[in-house]
Amino acid sequence: MRPxxxxxxxRRVITAPTVGPFIALVLTMVFFSLxxxxxxxxxxxxxxxxxxxxxxxxxxxxxxxxxxxGIDLSVGTxxxxxxxxxxxxxxxxxxxxxxxxxxxxxxxxxFGVLHGGLVTGVRLPPFIxxxxxxxxxxxxxxxxxxxxxxxxxxxxEVFWGRTxxxxxxxxxxxxxxxxxxYALFWYGLNQTAxxxxxxxxxxxxxxxxxxxxxxxxxxLSVYTLAGLTYGIAAWLLVGRxxxxxPNAGQTTENLxxxxxxxxxxxxxxxxxxxxxxxxxxxxxxxxFRNGLTLIGVQVIYQYLVTGILVILAVSIDQFAHRRRA
Length: 325
What we know:
Strand content: under 5%
Shape: globular
Number of helices: 13
Distance between the termini: 34 Å
CATH topology: ABC transporter involved in vitamin B12 uptake, BtuC
Largest sheet: 2 strands, antiparallel
Number of strands: 2
Oligomer: single chain
Radius of gyration: 20 Å
């Protein structure tokens, strides 16, 4: 290979959107491995993956929305509503587990359709739409659950919390599902016309419309699929906690999903980012939380560090956007 070609290859690798987040993840892991011997234990990595899987799946939907230059503030509360519906129906109302699950997931999908309809039909900003539905889903969660926690769930609802063993280390089936979802959405965004349309709409909605892309249909599909991922995350949450808790998922998940997407290199201005970067971003959040816990940092300071990371990532994105403009 000629030197010029080699330099071009190196330049492409260095400027790849996932390289920066991956380097950040590696440096974070090295830092915590030097601080505590427990960090690099296999069981600890399994724990990190379990902690990441719910936020990781929520972040898939958040990535789709942000790629189209939107944002979803309601991810955690919509997920909480979905998991309350699927658990209450099964435990308190005697609905078969499969139907209860489907109704819980469809509730989250319905919120996605509502988001897409208001953004495309009424032309409301995604920030305002999802800020409103955040409060609606929060209220419905507590009204429907009557602030009760549902236990004694059927096996189907807690399936993703079950574990299998590899080399003496336990992993949950939910982690496998998360990775499968990332693979499916990577394919959809990178190997299909729909994925190219998503990027085009996020880059310049009006230009995409003028090229013949049905931008409203693309946006509606994005928000609907995002709602589907929130429903799947609700099922994962039930599997991990084995209860239907109206308070679960309504605090950190909204911020953490956005944090994972931003740290993964997806631009808040839309049209630029990768789903693999989001996975890396979710892992960064999980590793930070886990590592800080292992070295004895209080939870309140973990939120402080996470907030600083978000500001830094957004600042870098803003600087890069100005250079491209």
